[in-house]
Amino acid sequence: MNEQLEEQLKGLPDRPGTYLMKDELGEIIYVGKAKSLRKRVRSYFRRGNHTYKTKVLIEEIADFDYIVTDTEVEAYILEANLIKKHQPRFNIRLKDDKTYPYIKVSINEDFPRIFKTRIVKNDGARYFGPFADVNIIHKTLGLLQELFALRTCRKDLQADKPEERPCLNYYIGKCLAPCTGEIDVESYRQLIDRVCLFLSGQQGELIKRAEEMMYQASERKDFEKAAHYRDTIKALEKITAQQKVMSGKNLNQDVVALARNEEDWACIQVLFIRNGRLIGQDYFIMEGSQGDSDREIMGSFLQQHYDQAISLPDEILLGTMIGQLDLLKEWLSGKKGKKIRIYSPERGEKKRLVEMAADNAVENLKKELIRLKYQRERTTEAVKILQQHLGLAKPPDHIEGFDISNIQGTDPVASMVVFKGGYSSKKDYRRFKIKTIEGPDDFAMMQEVIERRYSRLLSEDKSLPDLILIDGGKGQLSAAYDILCKIGLAEQEIIGLAKKEEEVFLPGQSESIIIPRNSAALHLIQRVRDEAHRFAVSYHRKLRSRRLTHTMLDDIPGIGPKRRDALLRHFGSLAEIREASIGQLKAVDGVSSKTARVIFDYLKENTRP
């Protein structure tokens, strides 16, 4: 374990929260929750009986981040939101919206229904959740049904078109029969309003009513019913605890707070609340803030941050008030097209959110100062050490790494990644389709890509990299160097990195260079090599998947290019088309009932790896 991680582990708080494990490239590879961040995160780095998966994860952890919360329940729900957002490869991930269930109230209907759903739409209905335990929702909906006798049918009921007779639920006292006009719209809405108040967090009245019914059942010696009410009350109380991380209103809010240390460094923390739930956080170290007041730092941050923001929230909650608040409100409201509230709450739930942001600002400031110290050593120092090992004339601040990806010559592609000053520069990445080589000839493919890349730089009179890194040993390096000589770049610095023994090869030298395993220089070129490999493989998989998808759809009788493209535009992927029902397939332009049946049957009967 490196010194940076050791220092970060010492500063972990003994509080609930979520943690995000990162690899050498800064990619989030795992998100977890903890009752105590200090105990949980430290446990990864202690010797113990870890599972194989955890051992592999630990080997790849180069850094970590975390968000402190008030309760473990908040951490639990936040963990799900972050997993959905980042899709870390070491987490068990759901690819759709079925992570957690919601309670939906269809207030856009004359007689709204209340039911469980896992899909949230912008359809005018109200959604409450998400909830971690689906059993809680079932018990809650059961109690609401018993107390209010609301309808459960899926009929499209309209107040001006009553039906002749109600269903069985009406006769057994489980429905008020709005379908027949037994209850009018206004009276039914009043019941719905009471339910929404409860789901918004005002559970006290309903819990009190459930307790009364529990005691009444007990007095009747109906102990089974009394036990049912007892369990339901527990479920309602558990819902109250889970909703602490949510807002009672489906608002979009940013919560902004500031922290400073003894050296006068400043950190701004932002919590992002969307549709009433906390979905993530970000923080910013404010440079050149020494000597400025908190109000000045906060005002400068808000101006710069929201100037480049794509979307704006409905409310901005501040931990530190600023000068010229009216000017900021006018500017942002004009940018959003509607009024934005900006204020510093003094009590209640919103005050608690500001305090949570402030707590995270303190923790992130401590963590960032540790990271900055060791980041400099890992990047700028690594470049200088690499120069010494390779005997280069100047530090290789600009490195370009190449890799080839193909399966037996099919869908061959190449990748080029760029590192500047020891950091990856993703905006400069490039990927190539192999155009001139047939069959599995990696050497020839590498020559094609090197020639295309550097012939173009020469023709456009652009600067060359300080170092080229080829993923491979002597053979790959020799092939690439021959092309460089051919186009007049024999003096260009280039190396090959062989993965088996992590040997470094230089052109014209039979002996390899062995860089110590614990050297920051070796870690740097390993990061370049691994990133080039990842980028190449991801592009190859994308092209191969696209080819297989199009081929399979083209094999279906009656599906030509137009229908194929319409299906892919509508569903997004072959996997989604395979999961679609006949009714959903019919909704695609140009797909008749007969064709939908053909597609459905074909995809069920045929599979591709």
UniProtKB/TrEMBL annotation:
Ranges of residues in domain UvrC family homology region profile: 262-484
A Pfam family reported for this protein in Swiss-Prot or TrEMBL: HHH_5
Record-linked InterPro entries: GIY-YIG_endonuc (IPR000305), GIY-YIG_endonuc_sf (IPR035901), GIY-YIG_UvrC_Cho (IPR047296), Hlx-hairpin-Hlx_DNA-bd_motif (IPR003583), RuvA_2-like (IPR010994), UVR_dom (IPR001943), UVR_dom_sf (IPR036876), UvrABC_protein_C (IPR050066)
GO molecular function terms noted in the UniProt entry: DNA binding; excinuclease ABC activity
PROSITE patterns according to UniProt: GIY_YIG (PS50164), UVR (PS50151), UVRC (PS50165)
Residue stretches making up the UVR domain: 204-239
Keywords from the named record: Cytoplasm, DNA damage, DNA excision, DNA repair, Excision nuclease, SOS response
Subcellular location: Cytoplasm
Gene Ontology CC terms, in alphabetical order: cytoplasm; excinuclease repair complex
Predominant subcellular localization, coarse grouping: cytoplasm
Domain GIY-YIG: start-end pairs: 14-92
An example Gene Ontology biological process: nucleotide-excision repair
Binding partners and assembly: Interacts with UvrB in an incision complex.
NCBIfam families from the UniProt entry: PRK00558.1-5, uvrC
Family note: Belongs to the UvrC family.
Described purpose of this protein according to its UniProt entry: The UvrABC repair system catalyzes the recognition and processing of DNA lesions. UvrC both incises the 5' and 3' sides of the lesion. The N-terminal half is responsible for the 3' incision and the C-terminal half is responsible for the 5' incision.
PANTHER family: UVRABC SYSTEM PROTEIN C, UVRC/OXIDOREDUCTASE
Protein's UniProt name: UvrABC system protein C
Gene name for this UniProt entry: uvrC
